[in-house]
Amino acid sequence: xxxxxxxxxVLVAAVAGAGCSSSTSASxxxxxxxxxxxxxxxxxxxxxxxxxGDASGLDGGIASSCLPADVSTYxxxxxxSAKFYQGACAPADLDKFRAGCLGSDASGCAxxxxxxxxxxxxTDEAADIYGAVIVHKGWVELNIPxxxxxxxxxxxxxxxxxxxxxxxxxxLAACSANCPVTSNATLTLLSACRAxxxxxxxxxxxxxxxxxxxxxxxxxxxxxxxxxxTFAEAYATIAGLFCLPNPQxxxxxxxxxx
Length: 258
Hints:
Blueprint: H1 4-7, E1 8-10, E2 25-26, H2 60-65, E3 80-81, H3 91-101, H4 115-121, E4 122-124, E5 129-130, E6 133-135, E7 139-142, H5 144-151, H6 160-175, H7 184-199, H8 203-208, H9 220-225, H10 231-243
Parallel strand pairs: 3-5, 4-6
Antiparallel strand pairs: 1-2, 1-7, 6-7
Helix pairs in contact: 3-10, 5-6, 6-7
C-alpha cells in the first residue's frame, strides 16, 4: 500500500521534457493524497530508498519559517490528467528515466529516453495537464489523483480524484513558498508543514479527500494507483499506466466491404 513518503521525492536532476530544471529525492494507501497520512518523506527516488530525511541538523531559521501560510481564500481548480496507455515509452524506458533523471547522477538525463517518453512521464507543476510524475521546485511526486481519475473514468475530477488533488494543492499553496526543498531533510520539513495545513485551513478539503480510503472496491486499475511500498515500485506502476502501450488494446472491427 502506497504511503505519502513513497509518492514524493527530492529532485536532484534536470528532468528532460518537464520544462524545469532542479536538482530529486523521493519519499498505506495515501488516505487522501494528504500529508497527514502519517508517512515521513523518503529517500532518493532514484534508488527507491525509504530512508527518511533528518531535519534536526538544519538551521533553526529554516525550520521555524517552514510553517503554513494563510490559504483561507484558496479555491481548488482541477488539473486534468493525461491519458493512460499513450505508448510513448517502452518498458525499459521507465527504469532508464528514473535512474537517469530522478537519481543522484543526472548527467545522462537528456539521453536517457526519447523526448516523447520524457514528456509523458514528467510534467511541470504549472502544466494544465499532469502526467505520471509532477515536477515541483526541488522535488517530485506521483500523480495519484490523476491516476485515480483515469481509472474511474472521471476526466473532470468531480469524484474522489478531485478531492484528492484539491487537498494536495491546498497543502502546496500553504507550504511551498515557506518550505523550499533542497534535500531529504527539507522535504521532511515540507511534509510536516503539509500535515499542519491539513489540520488547519486545508482541513475541510482534507476531510473530503478521505474518500480515497473507500476506493478499495473501485476496480483493479484504481487499486494499482495505490500499489507499491517504495517510490520505485509505485513509479513503475503509475508511469506504466500512463506511458506504456495498452496491454489489452480493444479488438479491431474489420467491418464489411461494400
